[in-house]
Amino acid sequence: MESLPLYISLIFGVTTLLTVYFAYRAAHNSLWTLSTLAGWLLLQTPIALSGVYTQTDQMPPRFLLAVLPPLLVIIGLFVTARGRHFLDSLDQRWMTILHIVRIPVEIVLFLLFVHKTIPEVMTFEGRNFDILAGLTAPLIFYFGYNRKNLSRTILLGWNVVCLALLLNIVFHGVLSAPFPFQQFGFEQPNIALLHFPFIWLPCAIVPLVLLSHLATIRQLLRKT
Predict the structure, then answer these.
(1) Sign of the alpha-carbon torsion through 53, 178, 11, 91
(2) 128: helix, strand or coil
(3) Measured between alpha carbons, how far is 222 from 216 in angstroms, rounded to an integer?
(4) What pTM does this model have?
(5) Which tens digits make up the pLDDT trace of 168-180?
(6) How many CB atoms lie within 10 A of CB 153?
């Protein structure tokens, strides 16, 4: 990983900060949300730098330390009254525009593939079509929320389709990592996301994108 050009890490770092900013705005400038996200990123930094996640021969994988806590938080938001109140208070406009970060994420993934740290299957030249969500997000934001020309059904459909795109790359990313259950990318496993700063993708960006879709879908269904 030391051979990676610095600009790739810088692009990814800015993308992560932009994602956190959009989440902060979606939560109506909540300092609690901002401090929680910042604290989580800071906590994951020394863990990743110590090489904990690169030890992949154990079951369950240590990688769960990065992805399980955010998933439990999301589940907690949906099963508790205070959590559901928080979800219903989120701003759909900011949750929609948040998805533009999927464009630089896909560019970074392609650069990581070029530098032989992830497999092709995780890029838009392989089986990853997640960039379509990022490219269409500004259109949904403008026509759906500024011009209000899109029906609730279209907004719901877009979120469902883009959620499927997200789950697709998560599926291939996890099964391309050098875990005992690896299924893809044997010629070049997914090792980049086990290192800093790219660990922020599975531990922060993906959960925030997932939460944005789920919260928006919940709000749209409740209005329907």
Answers:
(1) negative
(2) coil
(3) 10
(4) 0.95
(5) 999 999 999 999 9
(6) 10
